[in-house]
Each structure stands twice: as structure tokens, then as C-alpha cells.
Design a protein that fits this description.
Shape: rod-shaped
Structural class: mainly alpha
Number of strands: 4
Mean pLDDT: 79
Strand order of the largest sheet: 1-2
Strand content: under 5%
Distance between the termini: 127 Å
Number of helices: 4
Order of helices and strands: HEEEEHHH
């Protein structure tokens, strides 16, 4: 048996409008056409299975999920918030512990769930009332005529089909896109690691800057304190200078005068000329000190 492209096929799907005829064929498990008997088996069309994106549960949406935690579809571990989880583990199915993600359609548990769901839907369809005889017309006078089905004169080669060539190009392009996406994912992972290291380094630099700011404030405080002490010292020096000028220097001048008087005899002549000259020099220096010429 061949299809419209001339390729050999082993299976043919038959769609029936009558559920009774369909059930009769399934019960007989045989169909005879042109004296050839063909085996019949029930065809279960693949049905989309709802897989929760929060807990990877089967048969419900995320909004209907009763679980409080979230499950990683790759490593099957549970977390409070998947945004804080960057999975780098090997795939492990939550349902069968296989080496695939928990939402993979090749999981045997998902396949079994889909098959059971399909059977339930078919069973519900079989329980519906059959079409009435008035709505279905049956031609009982049909006779098979082989001339109505002429054989295919020439076989069709898929190699000569431009459609197959385009499909092959599309598949090749998709494979290249898949490789590119893999490289992008790897680059993105490295970039995320770089950003983590960079953020840690930035936090360290910010801490050092804050430490320098605190040291600068401490230095400013010490400088203000030092200036205050310097002003106090200057004031103290000025006070001591005033005491020296107003008290000690006059006393010293009087002492030198007394010594000068004692260095004279009864006639007023100096007893020791050298001592007299030195005392006069001392008095001149005391006079200059009193006039603040030495301190300035």
C-alpha cells in the first residue's frame, strides 16, 4: 500500500461519523477490502496534557496549583522562589526519575496520563447517542468496481520533490539555530557568573570607599582639635610674654641698677669698669626686651 507520494505505508487512519460502526469495527478487529483482511486497532490521537509550570503537576494550570513551593522542571528540586534558583544540574524527571525534564512529553508517566485521558474522552464520546437514521444515508447498492480505482502509472520519488528539499533545508537551519541557541545559553551562563563576581567586587570597593570616608571625617575632627589646641597654646604664650614684659623685665632692670650703684665708690667712680660695661649691655638688652624688639 502506498500513499499519494508513492511511499510504502503500513498504517491507514479511518475516520467514521457513526460511533456504532466504529465500535463494531473495533470489536471485529478486522476489515476486509477486495478479499484482503486488514487488522484494526484503536487510534488514540495525542491530546495536549496540562503540566503545571509551578509544581510540574499533571492536569491543571499554575493558577489552580495547590502547592506552596515551586519545582524546578530540570532538577526536580523544590524552592520557595524559582527566580533565586539557577539550575546547572543534569535533567531528572520528577515523575519517573528519568534523564529528562519533568514536563517532557517522552516521560512514560506523562504518556500514560495522556493515554488514559484519551481513553476517557473516547469513552465519553461513545456514550453519546448515535446519529439517527434520518440524518445518515446509507447506500446499500454500492458495488466495488476495480476500474474505478486505476493503478498509479508512475511512482513518485521524494528526491525529485522541491518540497522535500525545502524541508531538509528547514531542518538543517533549525539544527544550526539549536546549536547557536546552545552557545548563547553557555555565553549567558558565563556572563551571569561574571556579573556575580563583578557585583561582589563592587560591594568590596564600596565598603573601602565608606571606610575612607569615615577616616577622612576622623582626620577632619582631629585637625579641628589640633587647631583648637594650637590657639590655646598661642594664647598661653602671649600671656607668658606679657608677664615677662610687665613683671620680670622691670625687676631685672632694677636689679641691674642696684648692682651698678654698688659698683661705684664714694666719689662715684666705677670700681670695675668691665663689670660696668657688661651691666650696661645687660640693661640695654632688658630695655629692648621691654620694648618687644627681641620677641618680635
Amino acid at each position: 500500500m502506498k500513499n499519494k507520494f508513492g511511499n510504502n505505508i503500513k498504517l491507514v487512519k479511518i475516520e467514521l461519523t457513526s460511533s456504532k460502526v466504529r465500535q463494531d469495527l473495533l470489536d471485529d478487529k478486522k476489515l476486509t477490502i477486495n478479499y484482503i483482511s486488514y487488522d484494526i486497532d484503536q487510534y488514540l490521537a495525542p491530546i495536549n496534557v496540562l503540566i503545571c509550570s509551578k509544581y510540574c503537576g499533571l492536569g491543571h494550570f499554575r493558577k489552580q496549583c495547590p502547592e506552596l513551593t515551586e519545582t524546578c522542571r530540570t532538577c526536580s528540586q523544590t524552592f520557595q522562589d524559582l527566580k533565586d534558583h539557577h539550575c546547572v544540574s543534569d535533567p531528572k524527571c520528577k515523575h519517573c526519575n528519568g534523564d529528562h525534564t519533568s514536563n517532557s512529553m517522552k516521560c512514560p508517566v506523562v504518556k500514560s496520563f495522556r493515554a488514559e485521558l484519551t481513553r476517557k474522552i473516547l469513552a465519553s464520546n461513545n456514550n453519546r447517542p448515535a446519529f439517527s437514521s434520518s440524518s445518515t444515508t446509507t447506500n446499500n447498492n454500492y458495488q466495488y468496481n476495480p476500474s474505478d480505482f486505476p493503478p498509479i502509472t508512475s511512482s513518485w520519488s521524494p528526491v525529485d520533490s522541491p518540497m522535500i528539499s525545502k524541508l531538509n533545508d528547514v531542518i538543517t537551519g533549525l539544527a544550526q539555530v539549536n546549536v547557536t541557541l546552545g552557545k548563547l545559553c553557555e555565553t549567558n551562563s558565563k556572563f551571569e557568573q561574571f556579573m556575580v563576581v563583578k557585583n561582589a567586587h563592587d560591594m568590596k570597593i564600596i565598603g573601602e570607599i565608606e571606610h575612607l570616608k569615615s577616616n577622612d571625617k576622623k582626620f577632619e575632627t582631629d585637625l579641628v582639635l589640633l587647631n583648637t589646641k594650637s590657639h590655646k597654646h598661642d594664647n598661653l604664650m602671649k600671656q607668658n610674654e606679657e608677664i615677662l614684659k610687665q613683671l620680670l623685665l622691670p625687676v631685672l632692670d632694677d636689679i641691674l641698677k642696684i648692682i651698678g650703684v654698688m659698683n661705684k665708690d664714694y666719689s662715684g667712680r666705677p670700681l670695675d669698669a668691665d663689670v660696668r660695661s657688661r651691666f650696661e649691655l645687660y640693661r640695654a638688652q632688658v630695655a629692648k626686651a621691654s620694648e618687644s624688639k627681641i620677641f618680635n
